[in-house]
Specification:
The protein starts with a strand and ends with a strand. A three-stranded mixed beta sheet has the order 2-5-4. It is mostly beta strands. It is globular, with a radius of gyration of 12 Å. It has one domain. The chain is 11% helix and 40% strand. It has two helices and five strands.
Length: 72
């Protein structure tokens, strides 16, 4: 599955390393700049679980994208 994230936060967002450990891939693992669009690819049959943390001005924003299966 292709998942597109658009950063409209006004801040740069780092990507949590677990996003890639959990099975996401992306052509670019660098932080996502303001007004930048980033494409993530998830394994077939999954959908994205998205969580974001705000660590304040010192560490900034961080996003986790984790592929999740619907086991119903």
């Amino acid at each position: 599955m292709k998942f597109v994230y658009f950063n409209d936060t006004g801040r740069t967002i780092t990507i949590h390393p677990a996003s890639f450990i959990h099975g996401c891939t992306s052509k670019n693992k660098e932080p996502i700049a303001h007004l930048e669009e980033r494409v993530f690819y998830l394994p077939e049959g999954t959908y994205p679980f998205v969580k974001m943390w705000d660590y304040g001005e010192e560490r900034g924003l961080q996003i986790l994208i984790s592929p999740t299966r619907d086991d119903c």
